[in-house]
Design a protein that fits this description.
about 450 residues, alpha/beta, Rossmann fold, Helicase, Ruva Protein, domain 3, 4 domains, 5-stranded parallel beta sheet, 14 strands, Transcriptional regulatory protein ZraR, transcription, HTH_Fis
Length: about 450
């Protein structure tokens, strides 16, 4: 708890006096305001007293199983609920989490662990509020519901999207694989006057080279073997809307010339036809290649390059906006857990720091896929460091604490920071590990601004 802030109320419900007293005493020493009761029925009257957290045994007098959680969430939806059970029961734990419980503990409850879980829950709630607020702001100001990030680089990108969206200018979106180029294209479409029409994506790398022209411009019946009917291409299908051409650097030179003509004249010619067809399409292209270098090497037409690059939007790789990782992780945890019907609700401090320290060569796509792999295999409410793939945990282990040129003060600060990170912010445990008094640790934390 931070000095000077109002004490958060924690409602404790347990029919065992020793357990109740131990939890209450520890919470009070940590700066919380515990309300201890042994009877669920009498405890409910405190739910309207501004209780921030409810810690309840699942089997208390006259109230059974997840009914405790259901009642608490119905009458105090703002409160975080942590359930305690005398026996480990995975089925009961999953049911409790589905009813809205944040965490599940088994007896005997370690008071230090309880404090740690409460702090994690409060941190998650603050993060969830920040994500919700960010999404609301982006939606109201920019219309960017599916993009997550609050870093300066992303805020600059949002503003550029807003400015270019309602023009007819061709846009080239550049960035490494997995950075979210299609999300940018869809946001441009959503903010434009064309938003009620189709936004059609085509990935040049995913279509056989012999079929790309037919896919883009369509073909007439009998134009080639297998062309049994006239087919409309993506340009015609996207008329009055937006056509998003991904991996445009994969187009062969002959098709580049035809694409340039379609952009400049706003007409296309189906394969096998001699008649031009007018199209009204907003074009957004994307690439993870250095097109300027391809122009120099003769692999990409210079005239098409400059025609596409009327406006260029560059997406930063995830390693250059690590301050967004916590937001992205919480966003994906909520999304994936809901889709997979898993109880995962949060990530602990150590695991999150390890994810922040990883370089993410596959960017946001790799981050999401990594989280999905962990979540679908988990029946726990919190992702821990031990759940991370070895390539991420090994990467973190290889990061040395002491580096050449560091001062003793810097080394001390880093040792304290990593120990607090390891204990999830538990200062008592950190002081024990570091071999110093709690008072000394608190002074150092204040001194180093940790």
């Amino acid at each position: 708890m931070i000095d000077g802030t109002p004490k958060l109320k924690v409602l404790l419900i347990d029919d065992q006096p020793d357990s109740l007293n131990a939890m209450s005493s520890r919470l009070e020493s940590e700066g919380y305001a515990p309300i201890a009761t042994s009877d669920a029925q009498s405890a409910w009257q405190h739910l309207d007293d501004g209780v921030a957290v409810v810690v309840t045994e699942l089997d208390v007098a006259k109230t059974k199983g997840v009914e405790v959680v259901r009642f608490a969430k119905q009458h105090a939806p703002h409160a975080i609920v942590i359930v305690v059970s005398a026996e480990p029961d995975i089925g009961l734990a999953v049911a409790a989490v589905r009813e809205g419980a944040f965490d599940y503990l088994t007896k005997p409850v370690d008071p230090s662990d309880l404090v740690h879980r409460i702090e994690m829950a409060l941190s998650r709630r603050r993060m969830a509020a920040e994500i919700a607020s960010l999404h609301l702001q982006l939606n109201e100001k920019h219309g960017l519901q599916n993009m997550v990030g609050n870093s300066p680089a992303m805020r600059s990108l949002y503003e550029k999207i807003r400015l270019v969206a309602d023009t007819r200018s061709t846009v080239l979106v550049t960035g490494e694989s997995g950075t979210g180029k299609e999300l940018v294209a869809r946001s441009i479409h959503h903010l434009s006057k064309r938003k009620n029409e189709s936004c059609i994506p085509i990935n040049c790398a995913a279509i056989p080279e012999t079929l790309v022209e037919s896919e883009l411009f369509g073909h007439e019946k009998g134009a080639f073997t297998g062309a049994t009917d006239r087919k409309q291409g993506f340009f015609e299908a996207a008329t009055k809307g937006t056509l998003f051409i991904d991996e445009i650097g994969e187009l062969e030179l002959g098709l580049q010339a035809k694409l340039l003509r379609a952009i400049e004249n706003r007409t296309i010619m189906r394969v096998g036809s001699t008649k031009e067809t007018s199209v009204d399409v907003r074009l957004v292209a994307a690439t993870n290649r250095d097109l300027a270098e391809h122009v120099k090497n003769g692999h990409f037409r210079e005239d098409l390059f400059y025609r596409l690059k009327v406006v260029e939007l560059k997406l930063p790789p995830l390693r250059q906006r690590k301050e967004d990782i916590a937001l992205l992780v919480q966003h994906f945890i909520a999304e994936i857990s809901a889709d997979a019907e898993r109880p995962v609700r949060d990530i602990d401090t150590e695991a999150l720091e390890m994810m922040k320290n990883y370089s993410w060569p596959g960017n946001v796509r790799e981050l999401r896929n990594t989280l999905e792999g962990m979540i679908v295999l988990s029946m726990k409410p919190v992702i821990e460091a031990s759940d991370l793939p070895t390539h991420i945990s090994n990467h973190n282990e290889s990061q040395a604490i002491i580096k050449p040129g560091m001062t003793m003060s810097e080394i001390e600060k880093e040792a304290i920071r990593r120990t607090l990170q390891h204990t999830g912010g538990n200062r008592t445990k950190s002081a024990e590990i570091l071999g110093i008094s709690l008072r000394t640790l608190q002074r150092k934390v204040k001194e180093f601004g940790l």
